[in-house]
Design a protein that fits this description.
This protein is of the alpha/beta class. It has four helices and five strands, in the order E-E-H-E-H-E-H-E-H. The chain starts with a strand and ends with a helix.
Length: 112
């Protein structure tokens, strides 16, 4: 998996591309998000448009990241879910738990 990082104001934007699955990106995502939180980032938006596969390990990492962020007063949002990823999060009943946005712009607006 590739992770691209950029900023928009005080929001760190991570764009994931590839497989967010066991052995294929979960550890990368975990390390990058943990590093941002440790550096004091409190607003993180993850672009998911490039995610081709999301398995239970990937879902678990998204939930763990959400919980880690909440524990330090930070917020993580997910944007640009593919229909397949959106359906998986709907089936696992995480749509109401995780903050999900249709676009990066919508996600950025939510941090204002």
């Amino acid at each position: 998996m590739e992770i691209t990082e950029r900023r928009s104001g005080d929001v760190a934007i991570l764009e994931f591309s590839g497989r967010l699955a066991i052995g294929d990106g979960v550890s990368q995502a975990k390390e990058r998000i943990a590093a941002l939180l440790a550096a004091g980032e409190r607003k993180i938006l993850i672009g998911m448009a490039g995610v081709t596969v999301l398995d239970s390990s990937g879902v678990g990492e998204l939930v763990a990241a959400h919980n880690a962020a909440a524990s330090v007063g930070a917020k993580i949002g997910l944007a640009q879910l593919s229909p397949r990823v959106g359906e998986l999060l709907r089936i696992t009943q995480l749509i109401g738990v995780l903050e999900i946005f249709d676009s990066l712009e919508e996600g950025l607006s939510s941090f204002s």
